[in-house]
Every structure is written in structure tokens, then in C-alpha cells.
UniProtKB/TrEMBL annotation:
Residues 687-754 form the Fibronectin type III-like domain. This is Fibronectin type III-like domain-containing protein. It comes from the Bacteria. Keywords: Hydrolase. Gene3D superfamilies: Glycoside hydrolase family 3 C-terminal domain (3.40.50.1700), Glycoside hydrolase, family 3, N-terminal domain (3.20.20.300), Immunoglobulins (2.60.40.10). One of its GO terms (biological process) is carbohydrate metabolic process. The keyword Hydrolase applies. GO terms for molecular function: hydrolase activity, hydrolyzing O-glycosyl compounds. Pfam families: Fn3-like, Glyco_hydro_3, Glyco_hydro_3_C. Belongs to the glycosyl hydrolase 3 family. It comes from Phocaeicola dorei CL02T12C06. PROSITE patterns: PROKAR_LIPOPROTEIN.
């Protein structure tokens, strides 16, 4: 019996699954779209100009609140004609779930019953680690999610996120972020799925599929961001942009049905992204055929002119709306001038009408304009039920990457006395990435955090719970996270950065360096929990370097000098350079920001209750060099400490019996590649089998490219056959405004990482080159037998 893992989710051209039912579903969808379009046209025709404009921007909840409660008087003053969006409403409010839902209920009732056209608002929120709301489950940060290489479980996560969001009235997630990041110095790397376009696309599609699984009318709309190249890709060649940087957005839009896209603060070539005709018309609505809504990043329409004069703001409004940026978030800093600009013939009214109808169409798709609309759940709400926590735990376990192990892990019975030291040993902060509720509250709003809503498990908490008399754990913090002035605020992007002061993470534990060294000296093994917290990585937070922050490296050197085996557990939102201390560590775990169950996941891996299976979604640098890097450029190992796709296990795996056809035609649909993988160790484990393509005789493709992967669970001595069906469209290259499948020799490589290639075999493509406008199949299919 075969288990099939489908990473393409929707195969447009190859027709592998469900053709008849898909056609039927498409017919129903087309009928619904026509009906909704008629409804939108009718609604638009009876709206006043003020009502129409109000649909093109948002408002923050605190602007219509007084003494912590919704104020109907302020609603009548601020939003008398309705409103398009209520922006980041959950992370900005210190409200329990029922209270948050009731806030939504009361505001929607006002909009429906006391504004002229009675149009509900879209309540949107951040959701990369689950809904950013008090009491909601905190899943691992996206960089860690990508290290699971498990789209199926990532889909479960966003299915659960959609349930939670709908229950408290949210219908749009400003997530996921799928920028490709080629340097760990970029402060928002933690929000990404890493450096590879294929893996990022697979995880992005999984995110959308889960969030929108019940359909937009009952699910939550996803938003792909940032368009395009915000993480450093806008200056690359057109070839690399189309083949890699655009791929995650393309997959989410064309294959997963993503209907919302966010532009960035940055520039694309010579244009501001938010008003780029090249991006929004030629690429997005032209090449990709996007028919959804474009929203600006917060403050991006008036970017660099928040303090500017009205003439500049008007110009920004004209440029953005004309280019196709439909909605200005989070407020009407620039779009409030649209009636005047239309009246003075400075904006063609057709662009305005298109934008308003797109905004209304999204509301129609979300069911907000239906008579049977469900705007929130009733009854008592639980946003962190056991099922959600279990998913968070499973993702955390699978996201943690074992980078080194000199037979010290898993901790055996001989380690009776454990020293647990470091600033991340007894804190919840190292579990939480940026855009969690907790980080948003602390950094953007200066709020206080309750680590029990939801319960966030520290490493020390987990060790104490799991000891059961088998060992003792002596804890000392030892050193602080960082030195003063190590991190600064980047005064750009979100306008709020202009008035922010750097938040400080605090600990109630004493910081006694020598006491920690003494405890370590008297132990059997040392667990050093080091790395970052949300002060040190995230939007608008810039570190001076990417080594272990503050005095942590020196602290680690003194721990190593005790002569006791040291297990380094690194937390944070990026790879951190550890070249000077790596040799002295007996084992190294990269835990990222693992979410509310992170402590349990880390300790279960240390104790051997869970076998690590995470694989790196980024190349791990050896130095603090700021030059961009990516494995598919054929990076030299001298620059990289641990390669893309790398991750160790407590067992071992043997690869054999690769099968690749010796020849194929350029007009064929697919090539099947297979191999056998065997667990040759003594415990059960999971291997992530990675398929790479190298163009032996082609100068048009990168030296090595990921083209498929599969997670394989194996008991000791067990073997399974993994087959990959690779579309020839995946082997095409972009040039001259189109794609070409070229004849030549191609080598398929199967390995445990991009450097650790275990098997390879070549296929000769023969026949005439095949030219196409765009690719319709972007992912391979894996089968495990």
C-alpha cells in the first residue's frame, strides 16, 4: 500500500487526481463569482463617495475605544460611513477571548445597523505563529516550521488557526511572509521559510491550504507578502526573480487560491513596490493572473513622507491607486484625498471603482455580505485547547535541528546531575518570535505579558516535570542576554518605529556568572541554553552582529573549560555564528523560537523521548560576512558551517538503488526518480529525503536545485522505497519572457542535505526545445512504499 504526499496540492496541467470533481467545483465557483459580482455592482451603485472611500482603508481599534471599551460615540465620529478593515485588533488589545469576541460583535453590529450601507468590516490580524491574540496557541516561528519539511502538519496548524480566528471574528490573516532570505543579518529572517524558493513555495501553499480549507466563506483569507523581493531579491536578475523569488507567491496564488497580496516598503528596480506598474500590473495581474486584492504594508503608501506635506501624500495616493494598490493600511493617511483627487481629475475614476469593487468582492468571498453570514462564534471560547497544543508540540519537535552530537545525546543514565545554565534556560521569551501576541504587545504597544495565557513552557519547567527521580537539575542563569546598545531600532518601514524605544526583556532570576560556572563544574553534563530573544531579532530590530549576543560566547567558553560535556541549545530567529566555540561543544541543538511547547520539545529531544528530524531551511554561515549566499549557487563549504537541508538523527539511514530513466523526451510529462532508504540504527527515526537537480550540460540552470522531498518514518532495520514524479516543467529555465525545457544531460541527486548527496544518476533529454509562456506544474509528487 502506498502513502502519497502531494506537495503541489493542485496540479493544474498533469491531471493526476480528481479531474471530474475539480471541474464540477470550478463550475460552482464560477457561478458564485458571477453572483457575487452582481451583488458588488449593485452595492457599489447605491453607495455614496464617502462610503466607497471608507472601504479602501482601515482603522486601529483603540481609535474608537474609550476606557478600554468600544465607544459608539467615537464610531459615529470616526467611521460614520463604515470602514474597510479593523487593523491588528487582537494583538493591540489586552482582552481575554470572550471579551475580544464581544468587541467584534459590538463593532460589527454598529457597522451593520448604524451605517448607511451596513457593510461589515474585515478584522485582520497576524497569524504566522497562530492568531496573535491573548490566550491563543503560539506555534513555532516560520523559520522553524520550514525546518520540519512537513507541509501536511503545517496545514493542520493553519486549519486550527482558521478555527480560532473565525471564532473571534477575524477573516483575514496578514500572513504568511514568503520572502527568500539570503543573509542571517536581515532582522526579519525568522518570519520567512528560508532561502529556497521550492521549499518556501511548498510551505506557503500549505499555509494557504489550511487557512482556506473550508472555503473563504467559512475559512480565513491568507495574504502573501511581501511583493516582491523585500528580503533582498529585488536587485537580482529577471531569471532569478522568476525562477526563485516569485515562485512562492506564484504557487500560493495560482495553485492555492490566495486572494490577498501585500506589497512592501522597499523598491523594485527603480519603482516603489507599492506603486510599481511592473510588479502590480505586468507581473501580478498579467503574468500571474491575480484577481484578488492588493493591500499596502502599514504606512507604505506614504512611505518616507509620513511627516510630509499634503501635496506629497496626494501624489503617493495617485501613484499607488493608479498602479493597482487597492487598500491603504492601516489608515487613510493618503487615500483620504481620493475624493478631491477624483474631483480635480488627477485620478481616473475607473481606478477608484476597480479598487472599491475588489475590496467589496473580498468581503463577498468571505461571506460578509451574505444574509447567512457568521461573523463570530458564540459560547465560551478556548483558543488553546489540547489539540492545538499537541500540534504546537509536534511542530516544535520536528523543527528542532540537531547540528552536532558526539554521542552525548540522548542523555543517558550516566548523567545523573545536570547543570542547566544560560539566559534562555528559565524564560518564556526565547520561545516567542516576532509577530506573536506577546512580542507585539511588548514591542509595539508596551504591554505586560501573562506567560500563563497561554501557558508557555520553559526548558527548566520541562526538566523539572520530567525528572521523576532519574536525575537532578541545578539551574543558574549565569549571564544576561546581551550588552547594552547591542540592538537598535531601524527607523524605517512601519511609521510607528519613529516613536518606539527599545524594549528590554527582563528576568527575575539573578545573574551570577561564577555561581553558574561552579554548578557546571560539579555536574555530569552541562545544558547551555543561549541565543536570542525578541529584543534581538525581528522587524525594526537591528543587531550589530550575528554571533551569540552579549557575553554569551565568553560564558560558553568558560563552561567548555570546565571539562564537562557541554550541550549548546540555541534559541533565536536566525542562524548564529558559533565557529569559535563549536569544537568545544559535545552537542548542538538549534531550537529557533519553538512556541508555547518549546520547553517540552527541547527536553524530550535531549532525553531521547523524541528523535530529532529537523533539517535546515537555511545555510548556516561560518562567519559574520554580510555577502548574500544560497546553497543553489554552489556555495563553497568553507563559507558554510552547516549546509541547507542538514540535520542529524539519533539513528542512521542508508540510501541505495537509485532509479532514473537514462533518456526522456523534452515533450514528456514527467520523469520518475526513486531510491530505497533503510534505517540502519537502533531506534525509530524520520529521514527527510531530498531530491536535487543539477544540469550536467546546461548553462541555464543553477548548479543544484531542490525539486522534491519526502519525510520517511522508519523503524530499526526497516526499508522503504521513495519515488518522485518530476514534471519536465520543473526542469525549465526562464529567459526572454518565457520558459524553455531544453535538451541535454541532467543529473538527479538524492541526499540527506544539499552537500550530503548519497545517490545520483543522469538522464539525457532529447528532442526539440519546448517553449511556454509560464509553467503550470511547480512541484513534484512523492510516493512512499
Amino acid at each position: 500500500m502506498k502513502k502519497i504526499s502531494i506537495y503541489c496540492f493542485i496540479l493544474i496541467s498533469l491531471g493526476f487526481i480528481g479531474c471530474t470533481s475539480k471541474t464540477h467545483e470550478k463550475t460552482i465557483e464560477d457561478f458564485d463569482i458571477r453572483e457575487m459580482s452582481l451583488q458588488v455592482d449593485t452595492l457599489y451603485s447605491r453607495m455614496t463617495q464617502a462610503e466607497r472611500v471608507a472601504q479602501l482603508y482601515g482603522i486601529r481599534p483603540k481609535e474608537i475605544m474609550e476606557d478600554g471599551k468600544l465607544s459608539l460615540e467615537k464610531c459615529k465620529e470616526k467611521i460614520p460611513d463604515g470602514i474597510g478593515h479593523i487593523c491588528q485588533y487582537a494583538c493591540a488589545l489586552d482582552m481575554e477571548p470572550n471579551e475580544l469576541r464581544d468587541f467584534v460583535r459590538d463593532l460589527q453590529n454598529y457597522l451593520i445597523h448604524e451605517t448607511p450601507s451596513g457593510i461589515p468590516a474585515i478584522f485582520h490580524e497576524e497569524a504566522i505563529t497562530g492568531l496573535a491574540a491573548k490566550g491563543a496557541t503560539v506555534y513555532p516561528q516560520q523559520l522553524g516550521i520550514a525546518c520540519t519539511w512537513n507541509p501536511e502538519l503545517a496545514t493542520v496548524k493553519t486549519e486550527q488557526t482558521a478555527e480560532v480566528m473565525r471564532s473571534v471574528g477575524a477573516t483575514l490573516a496578514l500572513s504568511p511572509m514568503v520572502d527568500l532570505i539570503r543573509t542571517a543579518h536581515w532582522p526579519r529572517i525568522e518570519e520567512s521559510y528560508g532561502e529556497d524558493g521550492y521549499l518556501s513555495a511548498a510551505m506557503g501553499v500549505a499555509f494557504v491550504e489550511g487557512l482556506q480549507k473550508k472555503g473563504l466563506k467559512n475559512g480565513v483569507a491568507a495574504c502573501t507578502k511581501h511583493f516582491l523581493g523585500y528580503g533582498g531579491g529585488s536587485s537580482l536578475s529577471w531569471k532569478e526573480i522568476y525562477e526563485e523569488v516569485l515562485l512562492p507567491h506564484e504557487a500560493m496564488i495560482r495553485q492555492a487560491g490566495c486572494k490577498v497580496l501585500m506589497t512592501s516598503y522597499g523598491r523594485f528596480r527603480s519603482e516603489q513596490a507599492v506603486s510599481s506598474d511592473t510588479l502590480l500590473n505586468k507581473i501580478l495581474r498579467g503574468y500571474l493572473g491575480f484577481d484578488g486584492v492588493v493591500v499596502s504594508d502599514y504606512g507604505a503608501v506614504g512611505y518616507a513622507s509620513q511627516k510630509g506635506n499634503p501635496d506629497i501624500l496626494k501624489q503617493r495616493a495617485v501613484e499607488a491607486l493608479t498602479a493597482g494598490n487597492d487598500i491603504e493600511l492601516p489608515s487613510n493617511n493618503c487615500y483620504k484625498y481620493l475624493p478631491e483627487l477624483i474631483g480635480d481629475s488627477l485620478v481616473n475614476e475607473k481606478y477608484f471603482e476597480i479598487a472599491v469593487k475588489r475590496a467589496l468582492m473580498l468581503k463577498a468571498r468571505l461571506g460578509l455580505l451574505s444574509t447567512d453570514r457568521k461573523l463570530y462564534a458564540t459560547g465560551n471560547l478556548d483558543l488553546d485547547c489540547p489539540e492545538y497544543r499537541k500540534t504546537s508540540y509536534d511542530l516544535a519537535c520536528q523543527s528542532i535541528v540537531l547540528l552536532k552530537n558526539n554521542n552525548v545525546l540522548p542523555l543517558s543514565g550516566k548523567y545523573r546531575k545536570i547543570a542547566l545554565v544560560g539566559p534562555n534556560a528559565n524564560t518564556y521569551w526565547c520561545m516567542l518570535g516576532d509577530y506573536t501576541y506577546q512580542s507585539m504587545q511588548a514591542f509595539w504597544w508596551g504591554g505586560k505579558i501573562d506567560p500563563d495565557s497561554p501557558k508557555i513552557v520553559s526548558v527548566y519547567d520541562a526538566f523539572k516535570h520530567k525528572a521523576n527521580g532519574r536525575f537532578t537539575v541545578d539551574y543558574e542563569r549565569g549571564c544576561d542576554w546581551s550588552a547594552k546598545n547591542e540592538t537598535s531600532i531601524i527607523r524605517e518601514g512601519d511609521p510607528r518605529t519613529e516613536r518606539l524605544n527599545m524594549m528590554l526583556m527582563e528576568s527575575s532570576d539573578s545573574t551570577n556568572w561564577q555561581a553558574a560556572i561552579n554548578v557546571a563544574s560539579e555536574s555530569d553534563v552541562i545544558i547551555a541554553a543561549l541565543g536570542e530573544n525578541p529584543t534581538l531579532c525581528g522587524e525594526a530590530r537591528q543587531r550589530k552582529g550575528i554571533c551569540l549576543p552579549g557575553d554569551q560566547e565568553q560564558f560558553l567558553k568558560e563552561l567548555i573549560a570546565t571539562g564537562k560535556p557541554v550541550v549548546l541549545v540555541m534559541f533565536g530567529g536566525r542562524p548564529q555564528v558559533i565557529d569559535e566555540v563549536e569544537a568545544g561543544c559535545s552537542a548542538i541543538l538549534q531550537a529557533w523560537y519553538p512556541g508555547e511547547e518549546g520547553g517540552n520539545a527541547v527536553v524530550d529531544i535531549l532525553l531521547g523521548n523524541v528523535n530529532p528530524s529537523g533539517k535546515l531551511c537555511v545555510s548556516y554561515p561560518k562567519t559574520e560576512d554580510k555577502e548574500l549566499y544560497c546553497y543553489n549557487n554552489g556555495e563553497f563549504q568553507e563559507r558554510i558551517a552547516y549546509p541547507f537541508g542538514f540535520g542529524l538523527s539519533y539513528t542512521s539511514f542508508e540510501y541505495s538503488d537509485i532509479k532514473v530513466p537514462s533518456t526522456a523526451q523534452t515533450t514528456d510529462d514527467l520523469i520518475e526518480v526513486s531510491c530505497k532508504v533503510k534505517n540502519t540504527g537502533k531506534c525509530a527515526g524520520t529521514e527527510v529525503v531530498q531530491l536535487y537537480l543539477s544540469p550536467t550540460s546546461s548553462e541555464f540552470l543553477k548548479p543544484i536545485q531542490l525539486k522534491g522531498f519526502a519525510r520517511v518514518n522508519l523503524n530499526p532495520g526497516e526499508s522503504k522505497i521513495i519515488s518522485f514524479k518530476v514534471s519536465l516543467q520543473q526542469m525549465a529555465y526562464y529567459a526572454n519572457n518565457g520558459w524553455t525545457i531544453a535538451g541535454g544531460q541532467y543529473t538527479f541527486k538524492i541526499g540527506a542535505s544539499s552537500f550530503d548527496i548519497r545517490l545520483e544518476s543522469s538522464c539525457q533529454l532529447t528532442g526539440e526545445n519546448v517553449r511556454m509562456e509560464r509553467r503550470n506544474t511547480l512541484f513534484s509528487i512523492s510516493e512512499i512504499e
